[in-house]
Predict the structure.
Amino acid sequence: MLHTQKTTEKIILIGMDGATFDIILPLVREGKLPSFARLLEEGTWGNTTAIPPDSPEMWTSIITGVKPEKHGIHDFGYQNDDKFIPFNISFIKPMPLWRILSNRNKKVGIFDWLFAWPPEKVNGFMVTLDERSMSPFPMAYPKNLTLCYPLLSFEYFLTLNKINFTKRGHFIDNINCTSEEYIKLVTSIEKYKEELFLNLFRKNPEVDFFAYVSYLPDDLQHLYYSYMEPYYFDVEKEEVKKYGNVIPEAYELLDNFLENFIDDENITLIIVSDHGFHRRDITAGPLLVKNFSDFGRYNHIVFRMNYLLNKTGFLSFDERGEEIDFSKTKAYFCNNLTFSGICITSRNEYERNYTIEEVVKILKNIKLENGERIFLNINTTNSSNGPNILFQLNPLLLKKETFKFEFKGKGSHAYDTPASIKYIVINTTLIRKILLFNTSFEIDELIDFSQLSGGHQINGIIIMKGKNIKKNFTIQNVYPIDIAPTILYLLKEKIPTYMDGKVLTEAIKEEYLSKNPILYTKEKYISPTLTPKISKEGEFKTIEERLKELGYLK
């Protein structure tokens, strides 16, 4: 446990991007997350409802207390001609918590909050590592912070950790490295961030409000969810052995981090995620080309079998259109780590045989527009724990050179990355369509990058622990916009009336509530100090001015 030099009561807000109880609770039951287990027993916890379940909107709502339509952040950036411009601190319209509290003489310590770049003058400190933009170096206010702590550049940091990489564009997702290097990269960055934050926490005991965000769960769950639930994806036993514990180990790392804060009675700890996570069944199907590129998220080519079964009426997705709704599904892609194929859900013999017969018809008749069949050697089984329909893929579709990509240098995750497969070439014949009876599909509808096996869902997490927080209590009806007003209330500060969120009184002990009425203050929600100014060249003059002010530019 860490001990500060002063017993100032403080709030620590720890963000965990994409954290979900669907993973946390089973690991708690297995005894692998002792800190989380204590927090659930000694605090208040429950799901948040994140709409939309996307990081830019929700992290900004958490720190401002307002809905996305008010704060104006709806993506990681915007398109300016052919150039993608990432959002920065000047685009956040309302006053973030760090600015509200600084103006009220409360000390703050902000560490790597999304869009909190470049750092601004606060009553305390602000560190922006901004690893998602691969910034040449981390930045801080005050600048002399960089003299006290090892705020190394990421390039130097990666070299120290012997991680080979080629930076391709703006986002960390687009680093050209192997899976092992990617895992090492994002895990090392998390350890690096935690060490820096703990140093700052120890040496700044007078701070009233700390905020820290880990992006590790999101980074790994997008890519490695399939190895945690291999039954639904085309993965192999050896891959499951290698990558099956990647996500649980990320939560164990965060659990160790939390241990530093849970014994201090002067700390109110609030853990929150911007959204939850679930399996993305829409991406599942047999892989045509594995590891065609060591390029971020785009490393396999897949035939989207579940998408085809959905379009032909045998499979239904949930409301978000990503995870299978088994109550309405007759057939889906599956894998018992010996064979992959199609599983039939019905136990009724007649319905089962009828579904098998109809799906086999589809597999036999789906063809490229030149007449080449996609699936060969189709067989059926009566298996109760594996595929009921087996097949082989046409060897012509198992070659990397068959696929021709369209590249788009636009969008938040698309710098120099393949955007889609626009056509394939077989024996010099260019093919753009896939045919099934009287229906035609564009190539990239059914053959595309496997991309992400895990995706966002609306159920995020909140965990609260402190001397004024109820113990072993489950809370409901929590929204990201509720976090900021709750923090202000626990710091005995007035809440701006423009905030859309509510104080989470259900989580707070009656004694504290009776002694501390909720007070409000009328303030304009648009910050008067920072507005983006964009020249014709697309450069942000406000950013340049602030970097000069902080001493990073001359």
